[in-house]
Amino acid sequence: MTLLNMQKADIGLEWVRVCSRQDLVAHSGVVALWQGVQIALFHVPGQGEDKVYAVQNRDPRSGANVIGRGLIGTLAGRLVVTAPLYKQHFDLEQGICVEAPEQRLQVWAARLNGDDVEVRAR
Length: 122
Hints:
Layout: E1 15-20, E2 28-34, E3 37-45, E4 50-56, E5 71-75, E6 78-82, E7 89-91, E8 107-108, E9 110-113, E10 116-120
């Protein structure tokens, strides 16, 4: 879904293009370098709505930049990505590790805007 209408929470915040929709792979991750940080982008097409999630690519447990290679799925009703090395599960919306809540991924708001994938700058 193309998000054309800004929500009230978006007013005054800057959305920055990080890649094009064609760069994404459905139900999988790709990695973009944005503001000096590797960000893993996950495209989850849905019924009537396509979502994009943006999380840090660096695994907090191993220190390796591998989160973008993780598998996505659901666990206890939450959309998660499985870290490739130690198999911990991170909630894609909040970045919290299901098994060890003290481990977190930084998350950014992301959206599809026409053919652009945008991340909200802080």
